Amino acid sequence: MREQGYATDDQENEPGVNCVAVAAYLTSPTVPSGAISVSGLAYRTPLRKLVDDVPAIRAIASGEHLP
Length: 67
What we know:
Blueprint: E1 7-10, E2 17-24, E3 34-41, H1 47-52, H2 54-62
Antiparallel strand pairs: 1-2, 2-3
């Protein structure tokens, strides 16, 4: 997670479910206070799609508005 800036779960925890997680910085700009995870059914949401959406997930988790 430190190298990529996000973590993935490619049906490892639950067959048929993909997941991506990003750190959440709610109380400090440098120390994460938790994580936000987004999961989807693998047949509808391939892992690549979740990874491609990491910037949007980060923006939502940080409270930023997307254009």
